[in-house]
Amino acid sequence: MDKILLNSEVIIYLLSKSLMMLLLFVAFLYSVVILKDWDFNQFTPKQFALENRSYLVSVIIVFALILKSFLILYFVHTIDALSEFVPGAMCAAGVIKANIYGNYLLVLSLASIFLSFVWMSINAMDIKSLDYPYMRLKTIFFMILFVLLVVEYGLDWLYFTHIDTQKAVSCCSVIYGKVGGGIPFGLDSVKLLVLFYLLFVLIVLSVWMRYVYISAISTLMFLVVGYYSVVYFFGTYIYELPTHKCPFCMLQHYYHYVGYLVWGLLFGGVFLLLDSLIMQIFFKEKSIHLTKVATVMLLLFVALCSGYVMVYYIKNGVFL
Amino acid sequence: MKQIVGKILMFVVIIAIIIVMFLAFGSSQGANYVYKGNSSFSVVPIKPKEYQCSECNMDVEDMKYAAEVVLDDGRTYFFDEIGCLVLWSKDKINIVKIYTKTVDTHKWIDAHKAYYSRIDNTPMGYGFGAYEHPKSGLISFEKMRELMLQGQNLQDPFVKKSLLGKDLAK
What we know:
The complex is a heterodimer. By secondary structure, chain A is mainly alpha-helical. Chain A has 2 domains: 2-161; 176-316. Chain A contains 11 helices and no strands. By secondary structure, chain B is of the alpha+beta class. Chain B has one domain. In chain B, the strands form 2 sheets. A 5-stranded antiparallel β-sheet of chain B has the order 1-3-2-4-5. Chain B has a two-stranded antiparallel sheet with strand order 6-7. In chain B, a hairpin with a 4-residue loop joins strand 2 (67-71) and strand 3. The model of chain B has no long low-confidence stretch (mean pLDDT 85). The interface between A and B is medium-sized, with 22 and 22 residues.
C-alpha cells in the first residue's frame, strides 16, 4: 500500500482531486445559501449580492468540472504507471481489477463527466438568459452531482489504499482474451463491425434529420458497440497482433498514446451528443454548435479506427 | 426531396440494424459450458446462472451442490450437482481436479476429500450432497461414485424408499 501511496503519480492525482473537491465544497456551501435565499423578483441588495455570487460560484464549478474531465486522463495514466508495482499486471487492465473498487471508480468517473457536461450546458443557457431561469434547477443538479463526486472521491481513496502489491492480478490477455469470454450479445467480429458502421450512419442521418430520440438511442448503442469494436477488432490493428485485445495497452507509449485519442473521441463525442440531445429534448435549445462538434468527434473516431485497418492492409496486403 | 431520401435511408439503416441484432441474438448460446485457460487447476468461482451443467444442460443456479472439474488442458466444466459430474466424467481420462461446494461449510473443496450424504435434495434428485466434515451416514467419494454409476441413487424408487424409510445412522 505504501508503495502505491508514495508513487508520484498517485500523489499528484490525489492532491489534484483533493483541491478540486475543496473548490467544489466551497461552491456547494454557497449553493446552499443561494438556493435558500434566491428570489429573482426581489430588488434587495441581498439578491444583487446573490446574483454576483452565483456567477462566481458558476465559474468555480465550471473550472473544477473541466479540471475533473482532464483528471480522468491522468487517472488512467496513473493506473497504467502502477502496473510496474502490481505483479501480473502488464497495463492498467490488471491494476483496475486489483480490488473491487477500480471498476466502480472508472464507471462513476465517466458518469460524473457526462453529468458535468450536462450541468455546464444548463449553466451556459442560464447565464445567457437575463433572468436566470435555471438557477434553482442547476443549483439542485450541482448538489446531486457534488454528492456523486464525494462518493467518487471516497472510492479514489479506497481504491488506491487497497491495491495489494504482493497479490498477483490477471493481465489483459486473460481478462479480454479467450478466457475472458470475448464479444458479448452473441456477436462475432463481422456482425460487430456491421453494427458499428450502421449505427454511425444512423447517428449522422438522425442528427441531420433532427430525430432526437432516434439519435439518443443510436448514440447510446454506439457507445457500447464502439467500445467492443475497439477492444475486439480495431485494437488488434493498433497492436498489429490478432490475439492482443485490450482497451488500456493502447494508452502506452509503444502505441504513441493513441488510446487517449481513441477513447477521448468516442466518449467525448458520445457525451457531447447526448448532452446536446438532452438540451433539445428537455430545454428546447437547438445547440447546433455542440451537435456539430460531437458529430465531427465521432466521425474522427470512426476515421481513426478505420484508418488503422486500412494502413495495415496497405502495408501488409492482408487483414488480421 | 432531401427529406424523403433521408427518411428512406434512415428506415433502411434501422431495418438493417434490427436484422443484424436478430442474427446475433439468434446465434447467442446463452450461458457458457466451459471456462478455458485454468492452467493453475484451481477452483473457478462462478456466479449462479453463469454456466450450464455439462451433463444435464440446466443452469448452475443453486450453488449449494455445484461442482466443477478441471482437465489437463485447463478447461473447466461445471455441474449443478456431483451426480451429474460423475456421469459426465465416467469416460474421461484427462481429469486433473474435481471440486465440489460443501453443504455444511459452503466452501469449494477437493471432491475426493469430501463426505457425501445420500439423501440431500439436490437439483437433479440424485441425492448426493457434499460435506467437509465427516459424520455418521456419510460416504466417501469413491463409494458415492460407485453408487452413482450403478444407479443406486434417490432417482431409483427402491433406493429412495429404502433410504428415506429408515435412519441412515443405524
